[in-house]
Write a sequence for this structure.
């Protein structure tokens, strides 16, 4: 996100073209600047699903600072995978959610095997996903880099590990390849394939691309 008008306009397009919700991400700002933007988007779209991804905060800090009633929190590293450490015990994150009243109504998308994290060995993907599902609401993973799709075998193994529990996928998802992931993935967090840089270099959602992807997912 760059500013409130950009966030509001992108949310308008997402809702109008059939997306189920949006995540606001603070690529170029602090979380403290993101919160007022979130509030303005919420004021404009009180009934739409809106979450945040605060790249500059650890999971426990997000839950300590996030606005009450927020629909979702996405963190790139939930700290649950093998050979990964967090600054706080996982129990403290859960307690922070409970204390703030963000446990039942706020979905926690926890990054596991995400880009920019140490790679999880193939034979441990299912186990790590299974263990992680006990600490987050939605295990969330990605391909190896922004805009790069995840190997289908990785997604299959992670889904086998969590069974009927939900799995989310970001990076490299498009209307052209989403169908191969549909048997395994419950939520798609998409930006690159459905947006374009405008003349000022700001990422704006493209209505036709949003609609095409949403229709394939919903079918």
């Amino acid at each position: 996100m760059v500013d409130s008008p950009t966030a509001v306009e992108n949310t308008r397009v997402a809702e109008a073209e059939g997306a189920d919700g949006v995540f606001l991400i603070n690529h170029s700002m602090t979380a403290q600047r993101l919160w007022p933007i979130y509030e303005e988007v919420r004021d404009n779209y009180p009934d739409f699903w809106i979450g945040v991804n605060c790249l500059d905060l650890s999971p426990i800090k997000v839950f300590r600072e996030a606005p009450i009633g927020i629909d979702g929190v996405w963190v790139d590293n939930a700290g649950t995978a093998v050979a990964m450490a967090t600054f706080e015990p996982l129990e403290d994150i859960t307690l922070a959610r409970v204390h703030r009243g963000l446990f039942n109504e706020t979905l926690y998308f926890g990054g596991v095997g995400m880009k920019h994290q140490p790679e999880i060995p193939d034979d441990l993907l299912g186990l790590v996903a299974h263990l992680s599902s006990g600490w987050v609401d939605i295990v969330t993973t990605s391909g190896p880099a922004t805009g790069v799709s995840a190997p289908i075998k990785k997604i299959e193994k992670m889904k086998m590990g969590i069974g009927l529990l939900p799995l989310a996928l970001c990076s490299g998802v498009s209307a052209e390849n989403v169908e191969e992931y549909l048997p395994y993935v419950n939520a798609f967090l998409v930006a690159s394939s459905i947006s374009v840089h405008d003349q000022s270099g700001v990422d704006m959602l493209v209505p036709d691309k949003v609609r095409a992807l949403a229709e394939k997912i919903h079918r």
Q: What stands out?
A: Residues 4-218 form a domain with the TIM Barrel fold (CATH 3.20.20.390). The CA atoms of residues 167 and 176 lie 20 Å apart.
